[in-house]
Each structure stands twice: as structure tokens, then as C-alpha cells.
Design brief:
It contains eleven helices and 15 strands. It is of the alpha/beta class and 369 residues long. The protein has three domains: 16-79, Arc Repressor Mutant, subunit A; 85-187 and 325-352, Rossmann fold (3-Layer(aba) Sandwich), CATH 3.40.50.2300; 190-324, Rossmann fold. A six-stranded parallel sheet has the order 5-4-6-7-8-14, sandwiched between helices. A six-stranded mixed sheet has the order 10-9-11-12-13-15, sandwiched between helices. Strands 1-3-2 form a three-stranded antiparallel sheet. The radius of gyration is 25 Å and the shape is elongated.
């Protein structure tokens, strides 16, 4: 076997032996080193990559423990002929285990993985970038074959995900993506869904329509929904001004008074309708309207996005954009397994359709006397 120089970076937060583990594993997972292939010796790897033999030994011990390598007495280490359970693990990182969107993505992921003989391990990042970085590292140390990642919000660039991309570690993003990186991802038609939701309100006679988001436009799912909303206004000759964009940051915090939402609803120039980026935010907005003695939809119409179960069960059922939550998980794992099997060289980028579900929270705009 020709000697191989790997990209071992002493300044990386990843331990040297784990960098070597990851890059040796990539050779095996990609099929470049197939079953029975001889792996360079500890001495050869140490000399070629400028690292200590002890560091190489740690990496080799890990790969042997994971069942990817086996020893031939007097000959060295070879890629194993059998599949070890650790190489059949898929890691799924989601922001919350309480949100119906992410729970059903997990359900779909487990279903697709099980059908192909893989097992899923799950982590909850609490939509926190530091937690996400730590959990990616921990999952790689556990020997997962690949990752499905629902990235943290309000992040335009993620160094850890960029490193996965550079190292060719298999992963698929869901819900959102990073435009500079040509990665595999599975998202929904956020632009089209938001366009249809906004058009629905316009067709009901609303001319001043607010946009409420729990996050910034750095999150691509939010940005794409905002662009769909803006385009619908433009196509129907309606003006947009910055006061129509409202960011509510109390959604995941303890905010029993709904103070900021109530302030929005008390403005003199309050829009007659709102498109909320998520159903959870839309439901909070409706609660705030009730506290301000505003009738939904007579005083204010509300449309959400996601079609979570609660949307159809509340006292005034929510008009919303339904996205195929379970299918997102299924397709993401299917793409990941295809990547693991080397079935496609170019990025697979799937955009699933959405569907407008009209309920009672949206009604005709009041005619001004």
C-alpha cells in the first residue's frame, strides 16, 4: 500500500489520535480501503505524518476496538471482512426533544435507519452552538458512520460543520443549510410555503401584513420564508417597510406575560394580519391577542408554519403551512446511507413541498369605514 499523508493539525481542538481515527475511517467507509486491504504500520504512519508512534497506536487501538481493523500475526493490520455494530450507527442531532417538528424528524430517521440495518443515537443540543459542537465530537468518538444535523439557529457559518465538510465526513443537514458549503441537505420549500401563506392573507383583503420571527435571517429557513413573504407582497403591489418585521425572542424562554407580543399588537399602525415563522410563535401571538381583548380573526388574522398537532386542537384552529416532518427524517437518512455506500459523488439537495392548511385563525380583512 502506498504511504498516505493525512491532514493532521496540531492546533485543532480535536485530539491528534482522533484526527487520525477520523481520516483512516474515511478511507475505509468510502471503500478506498476495502475489506482485506493492508493498513500502513504504526511506524509508517508516524513517520509520514510527523506524529508520535504512541499517537498512532491510540488511533489503531480505537479502530481495532470498533471492529474496522483486524490483526494478522507477523503481517500487520488489515481492513476487517465483517461489519461491526459501531460502523452501523447514525447520529442525529436535533435542537429539542419537545418540539413536534424535531420529534417527527427523529421518528422518520429511526424508521429509515432501521430498514437498512442501522441504529440511531440521538442528542438534544437545545439550539446551542457549543452543545452542538460538543455533541458532534462525542458522536464521532462513539464511531458513528455519519450524522444527520439540524443546525443551531442564527448562525451563518459553523466551523465544526465546515470541518466535517472538508474532512469528507458523511453528514446531511435538515431544515436549514449553509450556502457556502455544497453539502447534502433535506429541507422544505420555505419560500413557496411562505409565499402561499402571505398570498392567502392578501386574497382575504389584508394590505398590511406583519412578519414575526423567533430568530434572525442568518437562519436559512427563516430567511427563505421572509423572501417568500416579501415576494408575495411585491407581486401583489403591496409596500413593505421595516416596521413589519418583528423579532420575538421570548418563544423558548419563560415569558408568561407575552409582553413584547402584546406591545406589537397595541401599536397604532398594527398590521391587520401576521405571518409567523413557526406555529409555536403563531399560537403565542394568538394568546397575546386574547389578553389584549382582540378577536382572532376579526381584529387580527394569524398564519403559522409547520402544522404541529397543537395547531388543529386549540380553541381557534390555526391556519398554517404544513411540512412533511417525518419524511424529512426519512429522506435525510436515505441520503446519508447512499453517501456511506458511495452511490453519489455530487451533493444531494432535496426540497420537499409544503401545503397551506386553511383553518379559522385567518379571515377577511375588515373594511375601513
Amino acid at each position: 500500500m502506498q504511504l498516505v499523508r493525512f491532514d493532521i493539525r496540531p492546533d485543532s481542538p480535536i485530539a491528534l489520535h482522533m484526527q487520525l481515527v477520523q481520516q483512516l475511517r474515511a478511507k475505509i467507509d468510502s471503500g478506498e480501503w476495502g475489506p482485506g486491504a493492508r493498513v500502513p504500520s504504526e511506524i509508517e504512519l508516524a513517520k509520514e505524518n510527523g506524529i508520535s508512534r504512541g499517537t498512532v497506536r491510540q488511533a489503531m487501538m480505537r479502530l481495532h476496538a470498533d471492529g474496522l481493523l483486524e490483526r494478522a500475526p507477523g503481517k500487520g493490520s488489515y481492513v476487517t471482512q465483517r461489519t461491526h455494530v459501531s460502523n452501523m450507527l447514525i447520529g442525529v442531532l436535533l435542537p429539542s426533544e419537545r418540539d413536534m417538528l424535531t420529534l417527527e424528524i427523529l421518528v422518520g430517521s429511526e424508521k429509515a435507519a432501521r430498514q437498512e440495518g442501522y441504529h440511531v443515537i440521538f442528542s438534544q443540543t437545545h439550539d446551542n452552538l457549543e452543545n452542538q459542537t460538543r455533541d458532534i465530537q462525542l458522536m464521532r468518538e462513539k464511531g458513528v458512520a455519519g450524522l444527520v444535523i439540524f443546525p443551531a439557529s442564527d448562525v451563518s457559518y459553523d466551523e465544526t460543520i465546515a470541518r466535517l465538510y472538508v474532512e469528507n465526513f458523511p453528514f446531511v443537514l435538515v431544515d436549514r443549510y449553509f450556502p457556502p458549503l455544497a453539502t447534502d441537505y433535506v429541507i422544505v420549500d420555505n419560500f413557496g410555503g411562505a409565499y402561499e401563506a402571505t398570498k392567502h392573507l392578501i386574497d382575504l383583503g389584508h394590505r398590511r401584513i406583519g412578519f414575526i420571527s423567533p430568530g434572525s435571517l442568518d437562519t436559512t429557513s427563516i430567511r427563505d420564508r421572509f423572501e417568500g413573504y416579501r415576494q408575495a407582497l411585491t407581486d401583489h403591489g403591496l409596500d413593505y417597510d421595516e416596521s413589519l418585521f418583528q423579532r420575538y425572542q421570548g418563544l423558548m424562554e419563560n415569558d408568561p406575560s407575552l409582553a413584547s407580543l402584546r406591545r406589537i399588537l397595541c401599536q397604532d399602525d398594527r398590521p391587520s394580519a401576521f405571518f409567523a415563522v413557526t406555529d409555536l410563535l403563531a399560537i403565542r401571538l394568538m394568546e397575546a391577542a386574547q389578553r389584549e381583548h382582540l378577536d382572532v380573526p376579526d381584529d387580527v388574522s394569524v398564519v403559522g408554519f409547520d402544522d404541529i398537532q397543537e395547531a388543529s386542537l386549540i380553541s381557534i384552529p390555526l391556519t398554517t403551512v404544513a411540512q412533511p416532518r417525518i419524511e424529512i427524517g426519512i429522506r435525510a437518512v436515505e441520503v446519508l446511507i447512499e453517501r456511506l455506500r458511495g452511490q453519489h459523488a455530487q451533493p444531494t439537495q432535496i426540497v420537499l413541498p409544503t401545503r397551506l392548511v386553511v383553518r379559522l385563525s385567518s379571515g377577511k380583512a375588515r373594511t375601513k369605514s
